[in-house]
Amino acid sequence: MAAIETIVAKLKDHIGKDVVIKGWLYNRRSKGKIHFLQVRDGSGIVQGVMSISDVPEEVFSLADRITQESSIIITGAVKEDKRAPGGVELHLKDLKLAAMSEEYPLGKKDHGADFLLNNRHLWLRSKKQHAIMRVRHAVVKAIRDYFDERDYTLIDTPIFTPAACEGTTTLFEVGYFGDKAYLTQSGQLYGEAAAMAHGKIYCFGPTFRAEKSKTRRHLTEFWMVEPEIAFIDLDGIMDIAEEFVEYIVHRTIETRRAELEMIERDISKLEAVRRPFPRMTYTEAVEKINSLGTEIKWGEDFGAPQETALGNACDKPVMVHHWPSGTKAFYMKRDPNDERLALGVDVIAPEGYGEIIGGAQREDDYETLKKRIEEHNLPVKSFEWYLDLRRYGSVPHGGFGLGVERTVAWICGVEHLRETIPFPRMLYRIYP
Ligand code: 4AD
Ligand code: MG
Q1: 86 has pLDDT over 90
Q2: Residue 421 region, left (φ>0) first, then alpha (ψ -120 to 50), else beta?
Q3: How far does residue 94's CA lie from ligand 1's centre (Å)?
Q4: Strands 45-51 and 88-99: what pairing?
């Protein structure tokens, strides 16, 4: 019977049968008349056992010569083996070489961060990076499923924009046929227009910020998902953010337990992420942070030390709301009971991973919004269309943005955002 072509992840369905696997040599050990070949194909790693008596002589000697990361096609019988990872191994009958690999630069020894980042195109093959990318995929899928299951319409917002959404200091300027444009910092303003057309929408795509400081929490290109909802207030926005984060975490645990175990994430910490999350006003948070021994004055924005202190003090994400308006963007509505405060919310992840969500109820009054645009020295002309939304059937509305890489870093328990995106873009890095 002809061997069945399959992938490592599905070998269990073929016990007792002959299969063909296409992949790369991950590792080899040889013991006299037996080679143990570890082969990875992207879906998993399987051990192939080759006995000198089971294969032609030239196949056995090829197995002796092939180098790590050579691309190969193997044929063998699937044998159940409870001790093997994945529960199976292959008794090899054939091995074909697709291409011999040169000496692989990412050996088994430890490498520095710079070396690994310069070789990101190869580093992606390593077990840990492979697992993180699979978690990222699960997070992205959970994000889409959450909104798709709840009648949100997906709206793709533009990358080239004429104006700033999140402040002018982090804008990337690009030439636009003799004019200036900027890479988008957030799809929100367009999301607001779409919410007036569809009621509930989300946009999901890359966003860009010229972050000029070197931190482990900032990329210059990152992915953000942004729901925007008509007829909602700040409390309603917080309810959604809370349910959404819980959903992402638990869906990821369900579908990526093996990967989380591989990277040695303490999954019990993620399992504890259940609603309700603690909610506190900015003023309460400032008191709490000071009482924990990290200084902050009322009116100041949180930096990494403040976010870390607060996040470490709770075993669930914390929702901080009612911020001093000076720390927040022009579009946030003010608290009708206290003009000093903006109706914004930040969700801060536990274990020191920092802010994963920023959101707000939006200013919905035409005159007030226009005044804010002017106060922030933004070009009113570029915002005419945005102001129109307050002229034609304005409603209370709002939404939030969740950063994918911050969320993946937290769920995986990895220190630095550079490992959570396939090809990170940072202050000093645009290669490879
Ligand atoms: O808090 P931010 O700036 O909020 C907005 O952009 C709003 N317009 C969103 C909205 O209401 N529709 O950014 C939202 C999230 C942050 O909480 C963080 O997770 C992530 O985006 N983020 C970054 N992630 C990686 N690198 C950076 N430089 C980031 N800046 C923000
Ligand atoms: Mg923010």
Answers
A1: no
A2: beta
A3: 52
A4: parallel
Q: Which residue puts its alpha carbon closest to atom 27 of ligand 1?
A: 218
Structure tokens at 229: 């909802």
Distances (CA, A) of 196 to 204, 228, 331, 391, 402: 18, 9, 16, 12, 21
Q: What atom in ligand 1 is closest to the CA of residue 209?
A: 28
State phi, psi for 210 to the nearest 5 degrees.
-80, 75
CB half-sphere exposure, 105, CA atoms < 13 A: 11
Distinct helix (H) and strand (E) counts, the chain: 13, 18
Q: How far apart are the first and last CA of the chain?
A: 45
CA atoms within 13 Å, Cβ hemisphere of 395: 17
* Contact criterion met (CB below 8 Å) for 145 and 365: no
- For domain 4-99, give the CATH superfamily: Nucleic acid-binding proteins (2.40.50.140)
Pick the CATH number of 120-419 from 3.40.630.30, 3.30.930.10, 3.30.2310.20, 3.40.50.970: 3.30.930.10
β-strands 279-281, 318-324 pairing: parallel
167 secondary structure, DSSP code: -
pLDDT exceeds cutoff 90 at 219: yes
pLDDT in tens, 70-82: 999 999 999 999 9
Sorted by where each begins, the domain ranges of the chain are 4-99, 120-419
Stretch 243-260: mean pLDDT: 98
Which pLDDT band, with edges at 50, 70 and 90, does 52 fall under? very high
Ligand nearest to the CA of 222: 1
3-state secondary structure of 88: strand
- For the chain, the average pLDDT equals 96
| Pocket residues: Cβ below 6 A from ligand 1 | 165-166, 186, 188, 209, 211, 218-219, 222, 224, 226, 355-360, 399-401, 403, 405-406, 417
Nearest to 209 by CA among 156, 173, 158: 173
